[in-house]
Design goal:
Length: about 325
């Protein structure tokens, strides 16, 4: 069995494991990485970009190095390679937990229990829940589902297809570091700069693939492409913009507008404002179902792309030409 087939089988098994099992309530590998990164933060922190860059190199580089060592150790055994890839894929993707949290909030809103929905919203995103009514919570959930489809599923699969287990672990490490130190708080404005910029770079291909697949899998492909083209560049995030705009167009809703994070108010542009309607509670489940379809399509797309690239390289090599 070749390395590409081992990756394909392992990635499919890992995504299936996430669909069936979700994330463990205790002992999650990403949580362990977060604790280690926090310890490095405590040891290195200075209000300086250079120290922040060192923090990023130590943590993200360590994850990539661990993945490289593990992949080399199991390379002689196809079964072990599949198992390692499956474990790494399961560890870094979070589609089931994303869907579970979103649907729990949606269910609370459907029951009319806005307070329960507010109490669960911090599990999904960093908005100030007390400033939101039921429709505002629903909009926040749809936006978070869209963005995290890229961050928690598609982006990891893209880098896994590119670089195998090191790519899977490296992408999740970068994405986690951005969540920890990449925000623009007074403490991390300079120190977290490197993590935030690296996350922008690492997330770029996954975000565009997510936007394409949301258009392909959604109920309104033309609307998704139209909103992406018209509004994505207006979003402050280079990666969330295409994803949220495409989801907005695909679902026929408006996203964006006034947001509140930690008492700080942001007025973001409205996405799909000219054609979309306001988000309703029922759109939460529609967004989750679209996210699921996008994740499955991303697995097929990235695995097929990896196999295709290998086949083309094989045909171009002297051995592949029969020389």
């Amino acid at each position: 069995m070749g390395a590409d087939r081992s990756y394909a089988y392992g990635a499919a098994a890992g995504l299936l494991g996430d669909l069936l099992l979700g994330d463990p309530r205790r002992g999650h590998p990403v949580a362990a990485f977060g604790r280690a990164a926090a310890a490095v933060d405590g040891a290195l922190w200075h209000d300086h970009r250079g120290w922040g860059a060192l923090h990023t190199v130590v943590c993200a580089g360590g994850a990539v190095a661990l993945g490289t060592v593990a992949a080399r150790a199991v390379r002689p055994s196809p079964a072990a390679s599949v198992a390692l890839t499956a474990a790494a894929t399961w560890a870094v993707v979070g589609g089931t937990s994303l869907a579970r949290e979103a649907r729990a909030i949606g269910s609370a809103l459907e029951r009319g229990d806005v307070e329960a929905a507010r109490s669960r919203l911090p599990h999904l995103c960093g908005r100030d829940p007390q400033a939101l009514d039921a429709d505002g919570i629903a909009r926040a959930v749809v936006e978070s589902v869209a963005e995290n489809t890229s961050d928690a599923v598609v982006g990891a699969l893209v880098w896994g297809a590119v670089a195998g287990v090191p790519g899977l672990l490296g992408f999740r490490a970068v994405n986690t570091l951005d969540a920890m130190v990449g925000h623009k708080s007074p403490r991390y404005r300079r120190y977290g700069w490197a993590s935030a910029r690296l996350d922008d770079v690492a997330g770029w291909p996954g975000a565009r693939l997510t936007a394409v697949l949301a258009a392909a899998a959604g109920p309104d492909p033309r609307g998704a492409l139209r909103a992406w083209q018209a509004d994505a560049h207006r979003h402050p995030s280079p990666n969330a913009g295409p994803v949220e705009a495409s989801f907005a167009g695909a679902l026929g809703v408006r996203l964006g507008g006034t947001l509140s994070y930690g008492g700080r108010v942001e007025r973001r542009p409205v996405l799909n404002g000219g054609r979309g309607r306001a988000v309703r509670v029922t759109d939460v489940d529609r967004a989750v179902r679209l996210s699921r379809r996008v994740g499955l399509l991303a697995l097929g797309t990235t695995v097929a792309a990896r196999l295709l690239v290998t086949s083309v390289k094989s045909l171009k090599s002297p051995k592949g030409r029969g020389k």
